[in-house]
Amino acid sequence: MAYLTCKNLTLGYEGHAIVSDLNFKVGKGDYLCIVGENGTGKSTLIKTLLHLQDAISGEVMAGDGLKAYEVGYLPQQTVVQKDFPATVEEIVLSGTLAKCGWRPFYSKVEKRMAEEKMKKMDVWNLRKSCYRNLSGGQQQRTLLARALCATSKVILLDEPVTGLDPKVTAEFYQVTKDLNEEGIAVIMVSHDVQALTYATHILHMDQRDSFYGTKEEYMNSDKWKLFKNTEEDRIGGEKK
Ligand SMILES: Nc1ncnc2c1ncn2[C@@H]1O[C@H](COP(=O)(O)OP(=O)(O)OP(=O)(O)O)[C@@H](O)[C@H]1O
Question: Residue ranges of the ABC transporter domain (predicted)?
Fold first, then answer.
């Protein structure tokens, strides 16, 4: 069974549906890219997958030994979060909180895990630095180290490259690809066509007619043409 299986999911607020009938699954080694126009419910889906919100109908099933707290999450960054007054070390350690239960301190095991993930994400030398003084790329690698403290199975990334320059964006994608090749399932919401390069599967969200399939299937679909044209128009508009 896959880590996550979503069956006939309808999502929305106060009984009002935003997106209906989502069917997809994410298994070990999958890299799922979630795309769709603004307001189609991508962030709402992420909240549902994290059990922060209930679906109107349908099911999210966990399998293959995945526990609810074993999903690492890299949130969409707000201006406030970029200014967060904590050190890199404090932020990465907070990723282990679900494992601490009611214990009000970090054990050696959690500290060792945070050290390992900071080294892996190349922010160990920055551990005493204040998060808000880091570059955008360093901030994202810190948040990725934090997400990896919560899981070695599934990470959820919500528009992780927003605001990063092309070189840092490419480096960040490479890190996610390396993690995926190590066996971690990646679920990434993105507006960036480049993100599709790394995906094995695509979920293109649409109010009633969403697409889910392999990248190859997506590249042969009308949804892909629509997404490509919309993105080209958007990028063209930004350049003017
Ligand atoms: N807490 C909420 N209560 C009511 N409606 C909400 C709430 N949060 C989001 N919405 C609405 O739900 C719809 C989907 O929002 P969501 O943020 O999930 O879309 P999205 O696809 O992630 O958008 P974007 O691409 O702009 O980030 C939008 O119309 C939004 O206004």
Answer: 4-232
Share of residues in the chain with pLDDT > 90 (%): 52
Mutate to test the pocket of ligand 1, among 9, 10, 11, 18 (most ligand atoms within 8 A of CB): 18
**What tokens appear for 45 in the block?**
């889906």
What mean pLDDT value characterizes the chain?
Answer: 88
Q: Which residues constitute the domain of residue 15?
A: 1-69+152-239
Q: How many CB atoms lie within 10 A of CB 42?
A: 21
* Integer Cα distance of 126 and 131 in angstroms: 9
For residue 45, which atom of ligand 1 is closest to its CA? 18
ipTM of the prediction: 0.96
The alpha carbon of 32 and the centre of ligand 1 are apart by a number of angstroms equal to 20
Nearest-CA residue for ligand 1 atom 11 is: 39
Note whether 158 and 225 are same-domain residues. yes
CATH classification at residue 206? 3.40.50.300
